Structures
1.
Amino acid sequence: MTTATRQQSRLTVSNVLAWGAVALSALALVTTVFNPDITALSNPTLAVAAVLLAILGVRFGLGFAHNKVGDVALGIVTALASGFLIGATSAYPGAATTGFFCLMFAAWATAWLFIERLATWKLKGNAGKLVNLIIPILFGAWILVIWQLITVGLGVPKVLLPAPADIWLRLINSVPILWADFQQTFLKAVIIGYVLGCGSGFLLAIAVDRIPFLRRGLMPVGNLVSALPIVGIAPIMVMWFGFDWPSKAAVVIIMTFFPMLVNTVSGLAASDAMQRDLMRTYASSDWQTLFKLRLPMAMPFIFNALKINSTLALIGAIVAEFFGTPIVGMGFRISTEVGRMNVDMVWAEIAVAALAGSLFYGAVALLERTVTFWHPSVRG
Amino acid sequence: MSPLSRLAAGTTLPVVTVVIAIIAIWYVAAVALNAPFQRDTYERAKQTDVPFSQLLSDTLVQKRPVLPAPHQVATEIWQTTVEKKITSKRSLVFHAWITLSTTLLGFLIGTSLGVLIAVGIVHSGVLDKSLMPWVIASQTIPILAIAPMIIVVLNAVGISGLLPKAMISTYLAFFPVTVGMVKGLRSPEIIHLDLMHTYSASRLETFFKLRLPYALPFLFTSMKIGIAASLVGAIIGELPTGAVAGLGARLLAGSYYGQTVQIWSALIMASVLAGCLVGMIGLIEKNVLKRMGMAA
């Protein structure tokens, strides 16, 4: 396949999207949008949204302004139309019908078109990085918009799936509870367990590394244990260490220990014989070789384990709380609020957990970039 | 080289040593952890100067020990697998089967989904830029936390049985498969892709004749991770259903009633299951790659 044909096929996708948006918004103008008898023409914001989307589709489909200004206009108009749609649905919750879905899919098509166009922008340096960052953010935002439109438009019961707006409302209204849960689960159980688990795994790996017999014996066992469902140990830990955070930290320690052990041991073996010989010709001691050559070489492996563990730690702490807690903690909150059918509170807690997990992972990844700046995957 | 040192140079002897050491530590820990309760019992029974040997043997046969000894767990597993009918609710095989079926269903859906997403990402620049970051971000979210909600909510709308539990397995299994497949499908070298161009191969032909064979080793490696994760998902998924059936339910019931031997036997069973599943994928991998002429 040549580049030209590929260009053409990509343009066809865009054209289908553009004309699809036109057809759908035209359809929306002649059908009922909300039951029983609201049409797009009887509601000014809906009419504006439909007309805007249609104009946009025609403009793109006919080939006007296929440039960055046109693309930005595409994005702004899509955002405006979605805003109008969200506003209109909240006025008529649960009454959406044909016309509404036409409008929603029209907006979907233009949003896709916008991302499609954005992905073809060829920018250099920081601007390119920024666009690469914006695309996934827009994608995520668009998922939220669709979620909002569908749940409110169809009147999905809150017990099943609350709308993002409801979750947000619940989130900002219950900050103290969420903060207390976060302290209990994340700041105590996760952080302490993570540090102790990773630390002891690391230290044992250094010790094991000096005895080849132990290393050969421990590695297969460690690999096996890493694949085991260790979370299952949670009820035992709760029995041993009580309901408060130490039992959760214990689960986190055991979960994070083995990935760290296995990764560090294989990382310590990552240096070449040539490099070790060089250290020998410098007459460096074992410890010097360890600190100057083998540990730096092991860093990518160690950070791999740290990243895996950042996720495991949060999961371990939350799951351990299902087996018994004092009346605070993210896992506790999730399981009790599910029982009380307060699903929006559960989602708020999940949003906090997701944010904490992502930031934790991000922090480790950032640290990795500064420590292993020499590694090809970072340099390149 | 003497036979012993040859053994020591391989992995068999070291592994056996480590396993024996673990079991020995387990016994010592069992005695140490169970001794306080045993001393209490003696005191209550007004028994004084119990010889140490009796204390030792008593700590290893308690009904609800803090830490059951390995042979207690082994007996429990033997009793609940071989000596019970498979259809009995007390049979561990019955519970393991329920967990296994959830795991396999979730793994199957998760792997298919993972492969589909990977194919989409490799063939579409837009998906690569917009979806891939979210695939990675999805794993920083502690999804197991919402397992109870997914199950309770789906039960509320009338979807029950395997599917809700399998969905959690799916979520955990799809990620390694997607990441591995994207890497694998991109691993053919440019020179090979160029060769396909000169043959005027279509995208579909390039996919089936070049990209897919290249991706298979990656797929198997990620499937091993995926199936282990899938088992974890299935066990967690069984927790909130009110301890009805499955290994997760055994864990929960054991923790409610302080049946430590039951918890440990469920744990060991889950570990054996994980080992078998990963081993099975490894076996398939070996055979498939051999057929394709890729085995080392």
2.
Amino acid sequence: MDQNPKCIESLSPECTNLRLKYDTCFNDWFKNVFLSNDTNAENKNDKICEFEFVEYQKCLFKSIEDLESKTSKQQEGSSHATALPKGLLDSIKEAEKEIEGFEKN
Amino acid sequence: MQLLTNKHVFPYTFEETVTAVWQKYPNEMSEHVKCIDILDRKYDAENKTIKTHRLITCQQKIPSWLQYLIGKELTKSRVLEISEINYKEKTFTLKSLNVTGGKVLKVFEKVTYKPDFESKDKTTFEQSAYIVGNTSFNKINSKIEDWSKSRFSFNAQRGKVGFESILQLLFGNREFEAMAVREQTLSSL
């Protein structure tokens, strides 16, 4: 079998199909180009499955923004106004830094 | 702080194993993993590396005392995973940290796949995890760390079985083949 027949969801269900298209393209490239010893097959271009990736990313980051505005609206209505959690993207950036810092130790 | 380590050898080549890593989810044994998203991916053709940032969304039952600490509205937890595969060196390293609930608990995990030094047909898997309770109270921190450690071990054991099921699906039942060969050898003696 070439690929796991079951598909895991994207954080937003409307992006799942776009991620699946990108994954299918990436998995094929990974197996047949990246892991191949055939240097002719090698893609010198750094952009892999660019069209599929851009379509999926548009959907994903829009969903993350929607998710953030939903969370901040919920927060406005709550009494814990001072305990506003950071947006998901900010938290991700912080985690990126922490992982990099952790690598050094 | 709690430290956990695991080591395992998969009877699949490095190429097979890393191919399966991208397709590990969903599997029946890792039902807590609900969503996977790729936030960023960079390919370096010259160095033969791919660096990937993935966001993993999990949902699992947690004890009510912990739910109280983390906050009722947070039912899904999210984890950032930064991975790098280097095909010249044949290593695949994945590092991760939780993005949500960090005020209560932090779980750093590092996983490395590389060809087994004894057999090129096999791949070693090494995992280490640091679990740190992050509240201001030592007693609560140790309680959180103990719970998290047992949950992590439970998920890791099941995750290994789930990963093996994906390897079998993609590349056939290697353990079974190895056993059959052994039986054949025995019967020919």
